[in-house]
């Protein structure tokens, strides 16, 4: 185990803005322009929401270390290294047989793997799944993810204290937050693919998440699944109306695996994935040509900001 695959590359200096999904970016913009969000975030801070969420996981679940689960920890380290996430989150496991994982905490992020994912996924598929979660952390999704997690439980409490009862719903914060969370999956799926670097692994993971029974694992038909996903190629999340969005976000037990696969297929067909692997998959930093991830201007590798568009860049 551990799966040291010589073909997989560590994507040095990979910047999330190079692969973040447009629907994610657009939904985030909407969310950040929604009245009431700032108040809600401040309130959550004041109540120490992050610490309390963290406590509920770290106090209940098994921490994965290089010592107790070295094979799983190896995969975790590789996933983070491949997408260039340098500050490793903590990793935990919880007893749940859904093939899934999630991340919480914006200051000190933690990733929680379901035991079902560990038992039912191959090592490469775990790399995809953990890469997906690491991608949430890398893109800075955690603050609003935490908010979306607690909102259903605390919405009334936080809302009535800060904004007046019912105003959370009427101000649209809840819808904007939960809708963005769904869209953030599309970015995280790309991170998962960049971590495992094999589209078939990404597809088979999503198939297992989508409901393939274990007795069929060796008879899975990825081609059929891809065909099913391709039928959704014209589906446009952003054109959905309010009711459509509400249904999309409230069916939370269904992780939209077919639609997400369809989005991955679309992304692969743009060639962006191959470009990123080509650009960042070098053996050392010296070999890397540094360009601005936003405007593509060539940089020396010493800048902190791009001189043309002003966006933040990694130093060599
Ligand atoms: Zn996710
Ligand atoms: Zn630039």
What does this structure look like?
By secondary structure, this protein is mainly alpha-helical. The protein folds into two domains: 16-281, no CATH class; 290-316. 53% of the residues lie in helices and 5% in strands. A hairpin with a 5-residue loop joins β3 (101-104) and β4 (110-114). α1 packs antiparallel against α9 (173-196) and α6 (123-138) packs across α10 (199-210). The model has no long low-confidence stretch (mean pLDDT 87). It binds zinc ion (2 copies).
How many beta-strand segments? 4
- Alpha plus pi helix count: 14
Strands in their spatial order, largest beta sheet: 1-2-4-3
Rg, alpha carbons: 20 Å
Query: In terms of per-residue confidence, which ranges show pLDDT below 50 for 5 or more consecutive residues?
Result: none
Largest sheet: 4 strands, mixed
Unique ligands: zinc ion
**Strand percentage:** 5-15%
The coarse silhouette is globular
- The chain-level mean pLDDT equals 87
Alpha-beta classification: mainly alpha
Number of domains: 2
Q: Secondary-structure element order, as H and E?
A: HHHEHEEEHHHHHHHHHH
């Amino acid at each position: 185990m551990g799966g040291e695959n010589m073909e997989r590359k560590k994507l040095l200096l990979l910047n999330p803005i190079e692969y973040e999904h447009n629907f994610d970016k657009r939904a985030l913009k909407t969310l950040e322009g929604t009245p009431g969000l700032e108040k809600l975030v401040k309130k959550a801070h004041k109540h120490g929401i992050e610490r309390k969420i963290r406590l509920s996981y770290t106090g209940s679940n098994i921490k994965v270390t290089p010592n107790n689960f070295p094979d799983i920890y190896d995969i975790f380290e590789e996933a983070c290294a491949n997408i260039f996430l340098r500050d490793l989150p903590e990793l935990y496991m919880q007893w749940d047989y859904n093939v899934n994982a999630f991340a919480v905490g914006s200051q000190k992020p933690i990733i929680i793997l379901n035991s079902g994912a560990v038992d039912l996924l191959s090592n490469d598929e775990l790399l995809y799944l953990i890469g997906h979660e690491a991608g949430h952390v890398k893109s800075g999704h955690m603050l609003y993810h935490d908010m979306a997690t607690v909102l259903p439980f605390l919405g009334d409490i936080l809302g009535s204290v800060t904004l007046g009862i019912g105003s959370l719903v009427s101000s649209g914060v809840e819808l904007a937050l939960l809708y963005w969370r769904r869209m953030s999956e599309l970015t995280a799926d790309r991170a998962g693919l960049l971590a495992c670097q094999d589209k078939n692994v990404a597809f088979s993971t999503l198939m297992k998440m989508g409901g393939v029974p274990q007795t069929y694992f060796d008879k899975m038909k990825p081609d059929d699944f891809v065909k099913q996903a391709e039928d959704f190629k014209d589906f446009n999340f952003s054109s959905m109306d309010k009711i459509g969005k509400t249904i999309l976000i409230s069916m939370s037990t269904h992780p939209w695996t077919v639609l997400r696969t369809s989005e991955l297929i679309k992304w692969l067909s743009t060639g962006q994935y191959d470009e990123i692997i080509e650009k960042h998959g070098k053996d050392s930093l010296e070999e890397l040509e540094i360009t601005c991830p936003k405007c593509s201007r060539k940089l020396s590798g010493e800048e902190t900001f791009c001189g043309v568009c002003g966006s933040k860049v990694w130093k060599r």
